[in-house]
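Holo prediction. Input below; ligand is zinc ion.
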Amino acid sequence: MRDEVRIFPLGVWAVSTSGETTSFLVDAGSTRLMMDVGLNPGHSLAIHSIPLTTVTHIFLSHSHSDHMQGFANLVFTRDTQQRQYGPAPRLNVIACGADLGRAQSLLEIFYPERKFDIDWTVVEPCSKIDVDAFQMTFFPTEHTVPGLGVVLAKNSKKLVVYTSDTVACDAVQEAADGAHLLVGECFGMQHDFGAVAKRMKHMCAEEMAELAESAGVLRVMPFHMHTPYTASDSRAHLINAIAARFSGEVIDPVPSRPIEIFLEEVSDD
Ligand SMILES: [Zn+2]
Ligand SMILES: [Zn+2]
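Structure of the complex:
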């Protein structure tokens, strides 16, 4: 069997009026890691017929609602789905200390009567942790609130780099260096959103593409797109703006479908 990881883009929009907001599932067989949870992760996973009980790890990048709001509902629904799918493995939630505290508060607010079996893993910029056969290395983002991005590697191969929300900065550039797939923030194009992106500390398509190119990334998947790009012609402009500056493969994450990474095709770090 080929050693394979699949990335499901569950939510790729910056605002909830456009569609499900930021959330990805990294499916590596027995390890199923969510990178942020969006607003309604239960529904996003159900679309792909993935029981919530098979999610083993949740990484929360920062405390904005478009990334974290679905957390309590995910934990609760995963718990109740055990009646349907059988016992779930113990859940591991990974974030910086302040955001783990916020995630715990969300559970206390919405489910004060329940106790959930959760391992809480505190990480900070430059932390490295092992998650089964994978290594996760965290880096600081430069956003309106403190946040973390993550590099997911296996056997020294950088499979996925997830920027979360950030401006293009040295830490992101370094993290992306030599990666196979960059899941890169892309608020919009400069002429549409340059000023607001700068003020709210987001990356635009042009910056993300240039960062990916200079980091020698092979594939790029933009996310965190704003409302105009729900229209297919506007999104084609956005994808073309990236492709004009980036020599690798540009993946349009709409409609949501899994992106496959075969480990033997990924070069060593
Ligand atoms: Zn944010
Ligand atoms: Zn966001």
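The first strand starts at residue 4 and ends at 11. That is the main takeaway for now.
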